[in-house]
Write a structure and sequence with these properties.
73 residues; alpha+beta; three-stranded antiparallel sheet
């Protein structure tokens, strides 16, 4: 049910001070690239600062707020 399920890594807005180092997919280890698709059950090995953990969780678990174009200009 997570927002990141089925998305490619390059579609997810990760914090700047966060790197996904590897993905454990069952017994397989996946080296992540931008085109790597996240699947249900994937376990991510992440390098991140303490300050970016909440932003990372939001990026992976919640749908981003839709952006509404500014029509005032």
């Amino acid at each position: 049910d997570d927002a990141a399920n089925g998305k490619h890594l390059n579609e997810i807005h990760l914090p700047e001070d966060c790197v996904i180092a590897s993905i454990q997919r069952g017994r397989q280890v996946v080296v992540p690239r931008g085109h790597t698709q996240l699947l249900a059950g994937d376990r991510l090995i992440v390098l991140a600062t303490d300050g970016s953990l909440e932003s990372l969780k939001k990026a992976l678990h919640e749908e981003p707020e839709p952006t509404i174009p500014d029509k005032s200009s």
